[in-house]
Amino acid sequence: MMFEKELAAVLKNDGLDEETVISSFEVPKEAKMGDICLPCFKFAKVMRMAPPLIAAKLLPLVEGLDFVEKVEAVNGYLNIFFSKDIIAKKLISAAIDQPCVGKSEEGKGKTICIDYSSVNIAKPFHIGHLSTTVIGGALYKIFEHLGYNVVGINHLGDWGTQFGKLIVATEKWSTLDEVRNNDEYFLNKLYVRYHKEVETDPSLDDMARAWFKRIEDGDEIAIGYFNVFKEVTMKAVAKIYDRLKIKFDSYNGESFYNDKMQPRLDELDAKGLLVESEGAKVVNLDEWGMPPCLLVKADGATLYATRDIAAAYYRKEAYDFYKCLYVVAYQQNLHFKQVFKVLELMDFAGKDDVEHINFGMVSMEEGSMSTREGRVIWLKDVLDKAVEKARQIIEQKNPGIADKDRIAESVGVGAVIFSALWNNRIKDIVFSYDKVLNFDGETSPYVQYTYARCASALRKGGEIDFDNIDYSSITTDEGYEVVKSILSFKDSVQQAAKFREPCYVTRHIVDLAEKFNKFYIGHRIIVDEDEVRNARLLLTKATSNTLKTGLSLLGIDALEEM
Ligand code: ARG
Hints:
Elements: H1 4-11, H2 18-24, E1 36-39, H3 44-47, H4 51-63, E2 68-74, E3 77-82, H5 84-96, E4 111-115, H6 130-145, E5 149-153, H7 162-173, H8 176-180, H9 184-197, H10 203-216, H11 220-244, H12 262-270, E6 274-277, E7 280-283, E8 293-296, H13 304-319, E9 323-327, H14 333-345, E10 354-357, E11 362-364, H15 379-397, H16 404-421, E12 429-431, H17 433-436, H18 444-461, H19 477-487, H20 489-499, H21 503-522, H22 530-554
Parallel strand pairs: 4-5, 4-9, 9-10, 11-12
Antiparallel strand pairs: 1-3, 2-3, 6-7, 7-8
Helix pairs in contact: 1-2, 5-22, 6-20, 7-9, 7-10, 10-11, 13-14, 15-16, 18-21, 18-22, 19-21, 19-22, 20-21, 21-22
Arginine binds near residues 120, 155 and 328.
C-alpha cells in the first residue's frame, strides 16, 4: 500500500494511535471503493462512537492532503482515492534522481553503532558467519539510507589462549615465515593439528599457556607471532568483505580493550556489584533468573563479557551512540542478557540503547552437508561454488554475453547474500544452491534478471519525454500495482530499519519484480503512440531505480545485462 504513514499521521485520534491505523488499512475489493480504505468498526470501542460516525469524523482530516483526490465515508468505511497527478509526479522523481529511492533524513544527527561479523582470528570465515555479516551489512546501508550516521564495528576475536596454541604449533611444525606466506587455511591446519596432538601430549597446553602469558606481558617475540596471525586472517577476510560489499569503520576487537577493563571492574567494585566466588569475580544475577556473569577468572584472566562491558563504555564515549546494535547469533542470547543487565546495574548511560539483534542458524541441505564428517563449510567455498553454478546457468541461457566472469560473480555472490536476508532473522536457514540460484524463484537472480530486463527496454526505448505522458496507461490494472509498489518502497525501508529486519527490503523488491513482470508480459513497452510509450518507459525506469536501490541496500549488484 502507499501513503499509509502519511495518512496515519493525520488520522490519529482520541484512543487511536498511528500504529493501529496503519495496521487497519485495507485494499478495497473494487476500484470504485478507492485505492485504500479504512474500516472503522474496530475503533468503535475506543472512540465510543458508531462506525459510520467515526468514518464521518475522520473524513475531513484526510480531505486536504495533496495526494488525496477524493474521500468518502460509506457504511463505516473511509474510502480514499489517490490523486493520479501527484502519483505521477512522485513516479517521475523516482525515475530520475537515482538510485536513491526512499532516501530520507530522518536519522540525521543520530549515530548507530553496528557490531557485526566480528570474526575470530585464525579461524577462516565459515558458513556460520554469513548471517551476521550480511544482516549487519544490510542494516548498515539501510540506516545510512535513512540519514543516520553509522559506525560499523568488527569486534574481532583477537584475544585468548588460542594464540598461545598457534605459537606452539608454528614453532613445532612450521615457521613464522611459512605462516606469513600462506593463507588462512594453512594457519587453521596448524590449529587443528595442535588439537589432535594435545590429546596425546598434554604438555603442549602448558607451553601454550606460557606463550599466551608472554603475549599478555607484551613480550616482543610473542607479539610478533600474534601480529602475523592477525595479518594473515585479516588479509583473507578482507577479500570476503570485498565480495560481499561489506565495510567497517572500526576493527577494534577484543584485544583493544586490554587496558580498558580495569576502570570498569573498579567501578563495579565500588558499586558493590562485584563479588568473589571461588577465587573468581562475578556479578550475581539470580534475582533475574540468570547465572552469574563471570568477569575475572581465579587466575586473573578477564573474559569475553568483561571486554563487552568495556567496549560498551568505550563506544558510548567515542561515538555517543543513539543505539548500539550487536548482530550476533541467538546462541549468545544469554551472554547479551547478562552483559546488558550488568550495564543496567552499573547505570551505564547507554543502558537502554544496547540491543542484541539475533538470528538463526544456517545449515546446508542434505547432500552438501558435511558437518557430520566434522568438516567445516568455509564461506569462500560456498561463494565460489555459487559463482561456478551461476556461470553454468549463464552459459546456458545467454552464451553470447560479454564479461561472463563478472556477471557470474555478481549473480552467485548475490544469491548467497539474498538467501540470508530473505526470512525474518530468527528463522533457521537450510541453504541449497539450486534454490538460491533459481532464476524464477524468490531469489536475487530473479530480481537481477528483472532489472536487466528493464535496462534492456530502456536502452531500446530511448529518451523519455516527461511532458508527453498518458498516465492513464499506467494507473490502471497491472501498471498501477507496479506504481503502488514503487511508491511504498520507502515504507519497507523504514520498516526494515525499525524492526532491524532487512527482509522487508528483500521481500519488497521481489514483490516489485513480480508485479513488473506481470505488467511486462501483458503490455508492450515500446509502442508507437508516444504518450503511452513514454508512460510505460517511465514506469520501467522507476522500477529499475527502485530495484537497483533495493539490491544495493542488500549489497547486491544490479546488472545491465545478464
Ligand atoms: N567473535 C564472536 C563470535 O564469533 C562474536 C563477537 C560479537 N560481538 C560482541 N561484541 N560480543 O562468537
